[in-house]
Structures are given as structure tokens and as C-alpha cells.
């Protein structure tokens, strides 16, 4: 595959599940969030992944989110569809649908829940890859799936020319270095841990996909600018601020995504709450959430000047 990888290089928010007041997928809110992020200047969107609460949604709901984002952003942003689902059958159905909608690339977690041998994981990913003509990005997130992509399987998957990269959310920056060293220029490596955006980029990641980008895209865009122009001390300073904010986002009663969605709501982008069993925000935390929002805005101001 002679894919131009430049369209993947940049800040790519992991897109959130956007619900209405009855916990249903909302077309209007999905499209509003897509437009909001487009106007912030991000490079693309990673739709239907962990931040998209994919595991809590039906295949029909996931298809609707993929459709709404494509209707608004096809041709404007690089669109990556996360199609990993518990069964191969459902993952392939999502992959085919994303291809029909005109997505740029597919991505998928490995199989979840049962501890399957690598041969089954290889077959699972390969069946998704073979189901369309789209390029494929492996998603390595061992914290949630229980499987850490081995070098052996990575190399085997790279033999398929449709495999153009890996989104690596494991914590060791060393994994990013290894995947980049092995993959070289024909492969794109995405930094997954937002707390290590700068280190991930410096050790070899070409770009980033992350779950907290959408609540502070400006800060990740600034970090990216500093890294790519060699302003390393400045990039560390932005990373420190980002990390303070991520720690605060995780310090309250609601899940991190619920807190993020509350901040977006205050900013005028209402995407509803999270789906249970994730916990929504509680009344007592609302003032603290305002404070986090203020800190984000202050950090943006500090680094924009
Ligand atoms: C383990 C985990 O959830 N990792 C997140 C991070 O973006 C994470 O939310 C962030 O680093 C804050 O801890 C992403 O890698 C997930 C992601 O991009 C996705 O939504 O698919």
C-alpha cells in the first residue's frame, strides 16, 4: 500500500460518545462535537474507540456515530474508525460500514475478555483487514484488553501492506521506540498515553491519538508545535500543565469522561453524560469541575502568548 502517511501526522482526538438526555446516541451532539474539534485545528478524529465508550454500545449505535461524524467531516479531517468489537463478525460488519462511509483508515483493539492465543489475535485482526481495502492501524492498549502487542506479532502483521501503523497506549515509552524502530518510515506510530505526549513524540511517535485531547486541544496543539520546532523545554512545560489537568480530571467522583463532558458542556458543547456503569458527575463536584475548566483556559492563555 502506497499510503501517504502525512495525513495522520498531528493531533487526533479520540472522539467521545455523544448522548442525548435519554442516554441515546445524539446526531446533533455528535456533529456539534466534530465541528467544534475541527474548528480548533486538529488533524483528524479517532471515532468509536475507548473514549467513544465502544464497549458499552450496540453495533447499531456505533454505526450511527461513525455515520454522523463522516457526514460532517469527510474530506475535512482524517477519519479513523475504531471497529474492534467482542466478536469478529461484528468487527467486520463495522469495518465494512466504515469503508462505505469513506473513512480513511480502520483500527481495532485485540479480542477482549477471553485470553486467546496470539494465533487467534492474528486471525481476528487479519479478518478485519481483509474485509475492506482500507489501511489498518493496530490498537495496543494492554491496560484494558489484557494483551500487550508482541514484537513477533507486530512484525508478522506488518507483512500485510495494509497495516500502516500502531496506536500505542501502553505506558512504557520504550514500546513506542521499538515499534518505530522496527516499522521505520513506512509505518506511523501514535502516542497513546496523553501524560507522555512529549516523551512519546521524542522517542519516535509520529503523532498522537488521545482521550483527553478534546477537552484541551489547544494545549496538545501547542505541545506538538513546540516538539516539532525543537522547543523542548517549552514542550516539557506544556506537558506538565497537561498532566496537572489530567490528574485533576481523575480526582473526582465521576469517571474521567464524565468530568470531561461536564467541562465541554460549560464550554457550550453539550455531549451528554457517560453510559453506566461509568459514573456520572455528582452535584458536589460541580464547583471543582469549574475550577479545572478555569485552569485549562488559564494554561491555554499562558502558552498562547
Ligand atoms: C488507557 C487509556 O484510556 N488511554 C487513553 C489515553 O488517552 C488516556 O485517556 C489519557 O492518557 C489519560 O490517562 C487513550 O490511549 C485511549 C484512546 O485514545 C481511545 O479513546 O481509543
UniProtKB/TrEMBL annotation:
GO terms for biological process: N-acetylneuraminate catabolic process. The active site is at 139 (proton donor/acceptor), 167 (schiff-base intermediate with substrate). One of its GO terms (molecular function) is N-acetylneuraminate lyase activity. Keywords: Lyase. The keyword Magnesium does not apply. InterPro entries: Aldolase_TIM (IPR013785), DapA-like (IPR002220). Pyruvate binds at residue 209. SMART domains: DHDPS. GO terms for cellular component: cytosol. It comes from the Bacteria. Belongs to the DapA family. This is N-acetylneuraminate lyase.
